[in-house]
Automatic annotation (TrEMBL):
This is 4-hydroxy-tetrahydrodipicolinate synthase. It comes from the Bacteria. The keyword Magnesium does not apply. SUPFAM superfamilies: Aldolase. Coiled coil: none annotated.
Amino acid sequence: MQKSDWQGIFPALLTPFDDADGLDLPMFKKNLLAQVEAGISGVIVAGSLGEASTLTNEEKFELVRCAKDSLAELPVVLCIAEQSTAQAVALAQEAERVGADGLMVLPPMRYKADDDETVLYFKTIARASSLPIMVYNNPIDYKIEVTLEMFRQLAEEDNIIAIKESTRDVSNVTRLANEFGDRFQIFCGVDTLIMEELMLGADGVVGGLVDAFPKETVAIYKLVKAGRYQEALAIYRWYLPLLELDIHPKLVQNIKLAAQATGIGNEAVRAPRQPLAGAEREAVLQVIERAMDTQPQLPDYLHL
């Protein structure tokens, strides 16, 4: 796969931890291999779902190296979520040295930059690295929206190639396509909108519940792109209660519990997060167990 042809399902990988609160690399590899078997097209490492805010830079690079060893030709994309431009540039340059194939860049953290500051932030990172970049546009969680005018300016940087579209406005997929054609690869970044945005022309999905249910996620993508909408819709309707676990403040705990239930993860999280407990945990488990009891029969989607 060419780096400029990113498409398909890119899991935002979980970061498993062991009993000593270190990286659980064997479990990380187990999950990664399940993703590859299901037909994913690339991975995002150390994103928000990967608990990036609790990871050291060296742990992030260790995850990149581990993913590269397991993935061969598929792109490994490291998330950049920093408070200063200098820190973001340093992380991007080191990521390139350790073998990352691309970067997913969030806007500046904590400080709510204005439009000009945000554009300059992204441009500075792009100019400091030769890696292809996906801009993460999520004003709901990060309070900064990358507008069409801002993307016009970012289009001047050849290595800004993709957008993780998480505004939760599905019509933004069409706005971007109308304005830029195929200049950017558009990825749906909200689990509960994956089928809608794929049908509107999104090139791929950066997903969360794919960490626990990889085959069903890839099947929806493949079926939609093949025009087999009714088959995709049947899977999507089954999937939606699970996908809603992603749009929750405790999405990390929810999805880690789901991955543990399907045998490709564990529910250990790094403080200040704590595993789900009591009635809250039971409610999430009920959603997961109900879905596992009714998992749909999948067609031979890998050969579409």
